[in-house]
Amino acid sequence: MRIAALLVFLSIACSSIPARADDVATAQGVIRAQEQAFGHDDATAAYSYAAPTIKQLFPAADIFMSMVQNGYAPVYRHRSFEFGESKIEGSSVAQRVHIIDANGEAWEALYTLEQQADGSYKITGCSLLRAGQAV
Prior knowledge:
By secondary structure, the chain is α+β, with helices and mostly antiparallel strands. The protein has 5 helices and 4 strands.
């Protein structure tokens, strides 16, 4: 009986691993899609990946795009944009991104995403620091 219970527990635990990896891949896909929209100056597409709380702060795509251009220049224009560590907690994903900006400076971005009622992930925030800078 104990062996059967252990096998059931292990099968459930192991079957959840790919779903969690899928959550990270999905979240990274959202970040990458927004990054590409910024690269094409497509404010509407970039805005579509923002969570409702972000849309409350920036109620139109052009306002959102202006904020990114002025406050998040390394996210808006860069030489490289590579995913680092990720962490899942409940329905949230935190994803680090290593960025080299247009001037060659290194940055660390921490994106947070939240799973929505429809199952999609939306970006709830992005913290940006020069690489090596203390938090």
